[in-house]
Amino acid sequence: MYCDVAIVGGGASGLALAALLSRRTKLNICIFEGGARLGKKLSASGNGQGNVSNAEISENNYHGGGRKMAFAIISQYKEVYKQLFYGKFSCDERGRIYPAGRQASSLTDCLISEISRAGVKVFTGVKVLDARSKKNFLLTLSDGSCAQAKYLVLCVGGKAQKQFGTDGSSYALTERFGHKITPLYPSLVQLKTDTAYIKTLRGIRADCVVKAVVGGKEVKESRGDVIFTEYGISGNAVFYVSSAFAGNCGEVRLEFAPDFTADELEEDMMAKKSLGYPESELLSLTLNNQIGRAIIKRVGSSDPKTIARTAKNFVLPVSGTLGFDYAQVTRGGVDMRDVKENLESSLCRNLYFAGEVLDVDGDCGGYNLTWAFASAAKVADSVAENER
Fold this sequence. Notes:
alpha+beta; FAD/NAD(P)-binding domain; 2 domains; seven-stranded mixed beta sheet; six-stranded antiparallel beta barrel; 28% helix
């Protein structure tokens, strides 16, 4: 079997690439997806609501050795999702951009429908076991057959969430061509913390400012949901700062009642004490009762000033994360020093990369899909330019 372009991986970047490339060229395109269906992870993105991008994007929202190159590409293709998907989008108070229908699976359906109309050949349940380059690329497939292609684009994802077929095994394909893989870590993931002071809070959700502290320095901060668990903490604000703990330990500092100062909390507790409130209820109404009691128990006194100070700086040592199976993305990937600005390999002509396989990862809030779509657009334009 021969195709002009072989795309390995039918996730967000692979589907976007096939759609954009079919518009820009008349090339014969094939997608090889090891899983049973296309776009499985895309259909679950944004808690199933499809958070495709963010209204505010800066270089600081990206990490890894390729962050500068990635941001340059993203700046060029920031709104490519509007070219990929024909429909209305809305933006929430945190800048997160969603399809107005808030259904991530509709994004996948849209791309599958387009590539089907364009005649893109799709092979699901077929893994690429090996890839070599001679005059063309020669692919060895898991169904016992082989394929040849002029262009090979690896959109194989990372190591996070193996239930979506991304278990890290596909990095071996990149290494066939001499590419190096930087150290891999789970990111956008739940944190394991000391639980001595939060055992009674399991299942409780709170609005907090979360600060990640590594090496004694506050390196990342977010405000949002914190969910207390048997192993530590979860929630959107935790996912956002979790990238700071890739390969690092440290601590998180939780600021409860972020809309009130420590002085205001102290004043409220003084008033409650004067009314005869019991010590354990001094933070009642202001905070969830169980959270308030946990803070007061940790302080070990009824002094309002000390309680307020602890509520605004509730420290939990971080011992690790829940790992790749629970992470949304992978920190690390193909070393960008061997990748050109058009995302073509500098080691092998006509070999390209897009999406999470590269050493680029974004914050929580639509930044990773932005990179998936932008990198796909860059590759589509690069291949199209080669064909002119």
